[in-house]
Write a structure and sequence with these properties.
The protein is an alpha/beta fold. The chain is built from twelve helices and 16 strands. It has three domains: about 160 residues, Rossmann fold (3-Layer(aba) Sandwich); about 170 residues, P-loop containing nucleotide triphosphate hydrolases (Rossmann fold); about 80 residues, 2-Layer Sandwich (GMP Synthetase, Chain A, domain 3). Bound molecules: guanosine-5'-diphosphate.
Length: about 425
């Protein structure tokens, strides 16, 4: 759903406005500097359109000063939102801090709405036009507290919201989509047949769903899963020679159609370049990942020894992925696949609230500060999760971070919040 970010300095009435937008009459949270609210994203609906409202004001630094704080909020909003609302107190007018936010938002490539709050009656409306000076277009007068003008504001908001749903969006309540991929002869067809065996029902088409006929619906561990692009696998169609290119195209389209990729490797053979390419395709597409070591029935003590070393050497970049050792032939441990897939999807969809994230990063940096360069150490001012599926994080800093330090943050993020089985994107925005 489209995301609306609400930005503004303390006490302009952000929380009251957020409550008004989401149509909930919950206790209004005082905008006290330094107060960290742990929940900042809310589901909302207006005229049948659903959207998410994000209150970026949950974090107020003590040291950096108001102007820097609001600039960081605005940066975060530009990184995360489809529409940005800058809330200003119409009775006070535009302050230096409001202007600092506006300067950042001038660069926004997304619609920005200036909300002139605390316009409780017609008399206060005369103050509103002064807010044109922010250079962000027409200011919209509202009284978040009394609801005056909030319907009009929601209409304006809807008009500015993007209408196309993201291609990645999951069908509501549809089955989770899994891509079974791997180079030829690793055992993909055998695994699919093994999974579809016995009482695990395969359905080719289910009334009312949009399951593609090339997909298979398979029930595993009490849940129906959609294995994408499996028509060829089911029929055990063997392609002619010279088809590596086509195999790679098939892998690409399968991982793109799926939420999670199960990459099969042949445990009896060395991990090859072609295996690596399949893994890269899944990771680069930003999909959750499970590595299945198939043909485990062929692994003896000797092979095990070498395989462990190959894994250390060849799969270093995906130590975060779960590994399951299975045999499609004997059925060994195939029941471990569904729980592994679930864990990977959970990490892929996890969202850490901004307040929690900033408390965490402050503590982490205090315990292990960035190395000092030329007498100074860059500081992390603000951290936010800009997206999920896969998780994307943005670090706003006072200077360039060492790549090694960014990797350290990512590693600890995984350890402390458990992003098992999902790639993570980290972006650093340095303000020099
Ligand atoms: P695909 O090309 O990835 O679909 O691979 P297939 O499923 O056609 O399997 C290739 C070959 O490996 C076939 O001869 C299978 O019988 C064999 N195979 C698949 N899984 C296993 C397994 O777990 N153990 C053993 N020993 N052989 C397997």
């Amino acid at each position: 759903t489209p995301v609306v970010a609400v930005v503004g300095r303390p006490n302009v009435g952000k929380s009251t406005l957020v409550n008004r937008l989401i149509g909930r009459r919950q206790a209004v949270v005082e905008d006290t500097p330094g107060v960290t609210r742990d929940r900042i994203a809310y589901d909302a609906q207006w005229n049948g359109r659903r959207f998410t409202v994000v209150d970026t004001g949950g974090w107020e630094p003590d040291a950096e000063g108001r102007a820097a704080a609001i600039a960081a909020q605005a940066e975060a909003a530009m990184a995360t939102a489809d529409v940005i609302m800058l809330v200003v107190d119409a009775l006070v007018g535009a302050t230096d801090v409001d202007e600092a936010a506006a300067r950042v938002l001038h660069r926004a490539k997304k619609p920005v709405i200036v909300v002139a709050n605390k316009v409780d009656d017609a008399r206060a409306e005369s103050d509103v036009s002064a807010l044109w000076s922010l250079g962000l277009g027409e200011p919209f007068p509202v009284s978040a507290l009394h609801g005056r003008g909030s319907g009009d504001l929601l209409d304006v908001l809807l008009a500015k919201m993007p209408t196309m749903p993201s291609a990645d969006q999951r069908l509501e309540n549809g089955p989770r989509r899994v891509a079974l991929v791997g180079r030829p002869n690793v055992g993909k067809s055998s695994l699919l047949n093994q999974l579809a065996k016995e009482d695990r029902v395969v359905v080719d088409s289910v009334a009312g769903t949009t399951v593609d006929p090339v997909d298979s619906l398979i029930e595993l561990d009490g849940e129906t899963w959609q294995f994408v692009d499996t028509a060829g696998l089911r029929k055990r169609v063997k392609q002619a020679s010279g088809t590596e290119y086509y195999a790679s195209l098939r892998t690409q389209s399968a991982v793109e159609a799926a939420e999670v990729a199960v990459v099969l490797l042949d445990s009896s053979e060395p991990i090859s370049e072609q295996d690596q390419r399949v893994i890269s395709q899944a990771v680069d597409a930003g999909r959750a990942l499970v590595i299945a070591f198939n043909k485990w029935d062929l692994v003896d003590e000797d092979r095990r020894y070498y395989l462990d070393r190959e894994i250390d050497r060849e799969l270093k970049r995906i130590t975060w992925a779960q590994r399951v050792n299975i045999s499609a032939m004997t059925g060994r441990a195939v029941t471990k696949l569904a729980p592994a897939i679930r864990t990977a999807l959970a990490g892929w969809e996890q969202r850490v609230p901004t307040g929690e994230l900033n408390q965490w990063i402050s503590a982490l940096i205090a315990a292990r500060p960035h190395p000092v360069r030329a007498g100074k150490a860059p500081r992390v001012l603000f951290m936010t999760q800009a997206g999920i599926r896969p998780p994307k994080f943005v670090l706003f800093t006072s200077g360039r971070l060492d790549p090694q330090y960014v990797r350290f943050i990512e590693r600890r993020l995984r350890e402390d919040f458990g992003f098992t089985g999902s790639p993570i994107a980290m972006t650093v925005k340095a303000r020099e």
